[in-house]
Amino acid sequence: MAETVHSPLVTYASMLSLLTLCPPFVILLWYTMVHADGSVLQTWDYLQKNGLQGFINIWPKPTAIAWKIIAVYGAFEAALQLLLPGKRVEGPISPTGHRPVYKANGMLAYAITLITYISLWWFGIFNPTIVYDHLGEIFSALIFGSFVFCVFLYIKGHVAPSSTDSGSCGNFIIDFYWGMELYPRIGKDFDIKVFTNCRFGMMSWAVLAVTYCIKQYEENGKVADSMLVNTVLMLVYVTKFFWWEAGYWNTMDIAHDRAGFYICWGCLVWVPSIYTSPGMYLVNHPVDLGIQLAIYILLAGIACIYVNYDCDRQRQEFRRSNGKCLVWGKAPSKIVASYTTTSGETKTSLLLTSGWWGLSRHFHYVPEILAAFFWTVPALFNHFLPYFYVIFLTILLFDRAKRDDDRCRYKSSNCGCDAFLLQLNINGFTGETS
């Protein structure tokens, strides 16, 4: 617990609140978007009048068709992850000296998924509106099914860990919430976090974005420009993610956060339900932006996504070349930082402090938040709820920045480099050393 950012009281309170409040919130958000005109006040009035029984009544029961959709989708993505060819990529060395190896085939899996899904609709084999019509049941099934999956991960971490990067802190709640294993696998090749985070969670973001677009077309005979802007920007963002997927395997989500409720349930349930919510709202609330405004929003969103990508590209190229590259046409400035691992080994990290990374700490979070705003703003401002994801993302990234800074402090204290973090602050370093 030495690396905990917050006090133990705040940590326990946040864990328990997320464990208990996130599942019902997913259902309430879906109900409000689909059945309450996107109005929080309308849902609040309903719950005030009907109380707990009213909430029970709106919680859809998982149905056979919901389980079937989830099972077919999950099996399809798992098969693509295992069977498609891909370049061999090594992840960062863990504190115990373990280096995970991945097969980088995410972009190919992404292309095949979207082509297959759209083709099934185009040729009349499967209508994606079925997914939208059973969305509440699907979310309900995911809530319970993913919870059971997290229990499986907890047990696996105790009895059959995949590597030395596993362990218990002795507290069941913390172990379940944060996870037991850093790199859990089934067999030698099936990486669980790649599946939950990338192939199920992020892929479902794109699949549901297309689903909402098709649903509006089926209902109205056309797709509003607001929905087009929302869908295109979301697909550009997810395409950027899979183009850069191998870089994602070096980030905090994969290289630091263990596989527990926080990461795995979040990616299996929270991502498809919350991250796609602006599009979910637009299905029944099309807005006519006009060509000029739609193009402005689209270009602004694409520019933000590009800057976010270029931030990651600069850092990745800097690390790949060991600092021997050009950033914005000149040699990059850097910090050579030493730290001591848990095994007592001294290591050195090169930290980029020029280009985008010289503007401010965690600068890459700025265009990411702005991109989320631009794919939400086509909904305009009649209701607050479509902007929940933007607000959530801002809170998440501020917390992640604090957690990452804390890890830098932890490393610097281990090696006795008091000037280390001071220099990071002076040079505007992001703090992301994973």
Counted by DSSP, the helix tally is 17
Largest beta-sheet details: 2 strands, antiparallel
Strand order of the largest sheet: 1-2
Taking Cα atoms only, what radius of gyration do you get, to the nearest Å? 22 Å
What is the end-to-end distance?
Answer: 19 Å
Low-pLDDT segments:
414-434
Number of domains: 2
Strand content: 5-15%
The structure class reads mainly alpha
Helical content band: 55-70%
Q: Care to describe what's here?
A:
With 434 residues, this protein is mainly α. It folds into two domains: 1-287, no CATH class; 289-434, no CATH class. 64% of the residues lie in helices and 6% in strands. It has helices spanning 8-35, 40-58, 64-83, 106-122, 129-133, 135-159, 172-178, 192-220, 225-243, 245-248, 252-255, 261-275, 277-283, 291-320, 365-376, 388-415, 418-427; strands at 87-90, 101-104, 185-186, 190-191, 334-340, 346-352. Helix 1 (8-35) crosses helix 2 (40-58), helix 6 runs antiparallel to helix 12 (261-275) and helix 8 packs parallel to helix 12 (261-275). Its EC number is 1.3.1.21. Belongs to the ERG4/ERG24 family.
Write a concise synopsis of the structure shown.
By secondary structure, the chain is mainly alpha-helical.
List the helices and strands and how they pair.
Blueprint: H1 8-35, H2 40-58, H3 64-83, E1 87-90, E2 101-104, H4 106-122, H5 129-133, H6 135-159, H7 172-178, E3 185-186, E4 190-191, H8 192-220, H9 225-243, H10 245-248, H11 252-255, H12 261-275, H13 277-283, H14 291-320, E5 334-340, E6 346-352, H15 365-376, H16 388-415, H17 418-427
Antiparallel strand pairs: 1-2, 3-4, 5-6
Helix pairs in contact: 1-2, 1-6, 1-12, 3-6, 4-8, 6-12, 8-9, 8-12, 8-13, 9-13, 9-14, 9-15, 14-15, 15-16, 16-17
